[in-house]
Each structure stands twice: as C-alpha cells, then as structure tokens.
Amino acid sequence: MSIDTNNKESNHRMIWNELKWLPSEEQLAQFIHLQDLLKEWNKKTNLTRLVDGDDFWTAQVCDSLLPLNEELQYPELSRKYIDIGSGCGFPGIAIAIAMPNSNITLLDSSSKKTTFLKEVSKEIGLNSRITVVNERAETAGRDPIFRSNFDYAIARAVASANVVAEYLVPFLNSTGQALIFKGGWSEEEEQILTKALIKLNAEIQRTHKFLLPNNRGIRNIIRISSIQKCPNQYPRSVGKPRKQPLGY
C-alpha cells in the first residue's frame, strides 16, 4: 500500500472518529465519486477550490456533517431537509449520502450550479431522494410546495445569521429546526439574531462550537426552532432581507 493511500485512509479515519459515525462501503464510494465529479466539472466551470485531499474530506465532507453528529447516530430515521444556497452540493449532498432514508431539496439561484447538482445526483445514484430547485430562497419560501414542509432547513456560508434566518424559518414544519453554519460568532451577532427571530416567531434553541480536524478552524452552528407559525409576510421580496435585515 502506498504512502499516499495510507495518508488518505488516516485522514478518513480521523474524520469518521470526529463524527462518531462510519460510512458503509457504498457511502464511501459515493463520497469518492462525488469528489471525482467535482474535479471533472471544475475543469470547465469554477464550482469550488476545495476538491483535493483534505480540502474535500475535512473542509467539505466533515464540515457538512459535523453539525449533524446527533442526527448521524440515527441514520435510519426519515427526515426532509432543504439546503439553501447549495452551491456545489455541501452540505446537502453529503447529508443525502449519510442519511439514506432522508429526502433532500437542494436550492440555488445559479442555473450553472443546479445543472451540476442534477447531474451529480443522478451519477451517484441519489436522484430518487434529491430534488434540485433553481430558485431564490425568498421566492421558494412563499411557494406552498416548500413552505412549512421541512424537518431541517440548512444554510452554509450564505449571509449574516439574521438574514439567513429569514430565508430558513419559513420552510420549517411545526417541529422543524433551522441550522445556520457560521465561522466566527459573537454576542452582538446573537443579540441581533434574537431580535430578528422574534419577528419570525422563532428562537435560538442552542448553539454549538466545533473545532474542525486538521486545524481547519472553528465552526459555530446555531440551531433555531419555531415557536409559532412564521408570519405570512416572511420571507420578504427578493433582495429585501439583505438590504433591510431584521434585528436592528
């Protein structure tokens, strides 16, 4: 066995140990296939720079799944997820691989990215459980097909938390959770988010701070739950959540 192969297996073990979860052979093959497809597509269209080695396994796969390490312990449960601003498929496709009984909606406003997501979902055998939607969050959040219809609404590296909350909360069912992925997280940001959530009839359930393996930095996860049904005026029209963010 080559040194390179040993290093790869060591990196994988570190990630699975961190997640307290071990993929099946089929799931590992799907992750590897996903990485190969990302590399191939990246040659013709710039999707992400995080496609090689540790960039892929830690900064993409582990970063996508670590916030869901509680859910990973019960992969047999059937849940409905929506990934807002899915980009090149993280965390959405990683969740779809890891949670084989769940259904995932990948939402992105870029047709270039949704074309990639549709092709990749088909290639790695997940298109029966993945729905790809080329739409803005503000529009989809008002659509009866999607509104109040998900157990989890998730966004990774999209915008400030108070803006993202307005995108996510309208998608939640009565017992659903919104997960916002952040790098840094301050008391001031938490205060602004708390004020924004009052308008959305939601509250911070709890926050987690994770340290990614291989010195890849800190990740803060804010879990939000609804108190009552989200008021019909949210999300506001396209662009308004960013231009006039809640919480101020």
Explain briefly what this protein structure is:
By secondary structure, the protein is of the alpha/beta class. Helix content is 41%, strand content 21%. The protein has helices at 3-19, 25-42, 53-65, 69-72, 92-98, 111-123, 137-140, 161-168, 187-199, 240-243; strands spanning 80-84, 103-108, 130-134, 150-156, 172-182, 202-211, 218-226.
Q: What this model shows, in words?
A:
The structure is a single chain. With 248 residues, the protein is of the alpha/beta class. The protein has helices at residues 3-19, 25-42, 53-65, 69-72, 92-98, 111-123, 137-140, 161-168, 187-199, 240-243, and strands spanning 80-84, 103-108, 130-134, 150-156, 172-182, 202-211, 218-226. It contains ten helices and seven strands. Helix 3 (53-65) crosses helix 5 (92-98) and helix 8 packs parallel to helix 9. The chain is globular, with a radius of gyration of 18 Å.
